[in-house]
Amino acid sequence: MKTWDKKKILEIDRNHIWHPYTQMKDYENRDPMVIVSARGLKLKTIDGQEIYDSISSWWTNVHGHLHPALNQAIIEQLNLLDHINFSGYTHPYAVEVVERLKDFLPPELSRFFFSDNGSTAVEVALKMAFQFWQNKGQKEKTRFVCLENAYHGDTLGAVSVGGVDLFFELYKPLLFKSFKAPSPYCYRCPEKEGFTLDASHQCSLKCLKGMEEILKEHHGEICAVIVEPLMQGAGGILIYPAAYLKKLREITRRYKVFLIFDEVATGFGRTGTMFAFEQAEVVPDIICLAKGLTGGYLPMALTITTEEIYQAFYADYLEGKTFYHGHTYTANPICCAVAAANLKLFAEENPLVKTREAREYFHQLLLKTFADKPYVGDIRYLGYVGAIELVKDKQTKEPFPEELRVSFQIYMKSLEKGVVLRPLGDVIYWFLPLCVTKYEVEEILNLSVEAIEEVLASL
Ligand SMILES: Cc1ncc(COP(=O)(O)O)c(C=O)c1O
User: Nearest residue CA, atom 16 of ligand 1?
Assistant: First the structure.
């Protein structure tokens, strides 16, 4: 059995490694968890503690860790082809991904562009939408519309269409200017009463008015609207009605503006359907996929678009319509092998049907556990994702004072308890893999309540 030197690992980590989305000083007097193995829903630390991976390792893991079929796909691929550049070459492994994925997509989405991660899939989508209009001679259509509270990644193009001020405000001087439409943040909507719950509620869609006005006034200079369908993830797991997307599709068509759905977080079953947009019964012009594409194993992304967009780039070389975008590891065969195996599991084992009961139980239990808690302002869920918004005062929706760092304390406590409650602001959430069982749902929520209430009692 493999052994490790914990002291040395932590020493080298502390002295040399800069972790993402982490104030390193928070770890001045505490150590990061050292994870050495994982299986199914559980992570194992170097000390042998088991922890529920209740956020699916940053929303990537789909079928549980180390699924035998996914492991096997990688092992087999290692006897065939490790890597080849994808410009002027192709391989059966990328082709299999496309062939399998096509079965889950509407026929309009027929052109697949590979890249490496969610942010890059978004960059590609933005450049495609922009260049489409340039190639068509409509040079003035250069701007994008995004939503407040939107998160599309951390590269500068993706940040330019982002709306989480905490992450992005500082970088403003580096960004291109986008139009920002109001966020469909149902909990803070003056017209909505009670918990947000799922994406089925009907409303007047007042928050879409701002978007409509922007499009009406500026459509001549706008190339595309980008949104995260049904759920603004990093903005706080803000779940909004499918009817919003239906109407948005209508108005983007009316004003001849492309619609980009960023399904990086919502794709691959997480919302209860293979893709979130299915629940709205609309088809976007471009979708962005990453995270769950490889079942949570390896970095790979896809930007998928229509024949109409593709054809605007298809021309004699000297016409200058080529899409000049590509990354060294585009369509890496090992990534493709595991992505194909992931899609095969979806096709053959139908996890969304298999664990339907567990995900419905998850919703019921969230309500049962948190509906009467004085510290829970909102409860929202969609498929395998659930969230509660913590408030100091349920009536006024006043948040806890920032200086208390309540959710960070809950995060730290949750790790001790054996569950990962990595917060988004005042929102505590669960982002479960599709293989979760009712028993695991119950354990995860029980541990979560313990962690939350111990911290709140100590304030
Ligand atoms: C909706 C959405 N888009 C894009 C991204 C960026 O993906 P990546 O971290 O792979 O660059 C994320 C990451 O959380 C996301 O949630």
Answer: 265
Question: For residue 259, is it within any domain?
Answer: yes
Query: Which residues are CB-contacts of 86 (< 8 A; sequence separation ≥ 6)?
Result: 94, 114, 326, 330, 331
Asked if residue 192 is part of any domain, the answer here is: yes
220 annotated as belonging to a binding site for a ligand? no
151 C-beta closer than 6 A to ligand 1: yes
Closest protein CA for atom 9 of ligand 1: 118
- Asked if 140 and 353 touch (Cβ cutoff 8 Å), the reply is no
The answer to whether the CB of 150 is under 6 A from ligand 1 is no
Distance 240 CA to ligand 1 centre (A): 19
| Residue 201 or 11, more confident | 11
When divided into structural domains, the chain yields a total of: 1
Q: What is the share, in percent, of the chain residues with pLDDT greater than 90?
A: 97
Residue numbers of the domain that contains 100: 72-349
231 lines ligand 1 (CB under 6 A): no
Cα(226)–Cα(224) distance, rounded to whole angstroms?
6
State whether the beta carbon of 207 lies less than 6 angstroms from ligand 1.
no
CATH number of the domain encompassing residue 308: 3.40.640.10
Confidence label for 192 from pLDDT (cuts 50, 70 and 90)? confident
- Match 């095969």 to its residue by tokens: 344
Residue 436 lies inside a defined structural domain of this protein: no
Q: pLDDT for 315-329, tens place per residue?
A: 999 999 999 999 999
